[in-house]
Description:
Blueprint: H1 17-27, E1 32-36, E2 39-42, H2 43-59, E3 67-68, H3 76-87, E4 91-92
Amino acid sequence: MTENRLTTDASQVPWNLADLWELTTDRYPDREALVVGDQRVSYRTIEERANALAHVLLDAGVGPGDHVACYLQNSSEYVETMLAAFKIRAVPL
Length: 93
């Protein structure tokens, strides 16, 4: 019988998309990460903004496994919101 590796406990997941993003940011901080219309945003800028929002979410009591509603248009802010949720192991919806 094979072991089931799926878990619903967010605190038990060893890494997620935010971890991969941070590795990329460490390597290429000033490269363009996102282009939305005329707006061009670097990995560093998105990382800094996502970190700031992650702290706001934590201060509001959001934690691992909690759901975070993301009601935004396609924008850099949408990416930042999703990354912020991933950083605290919450679930962006």
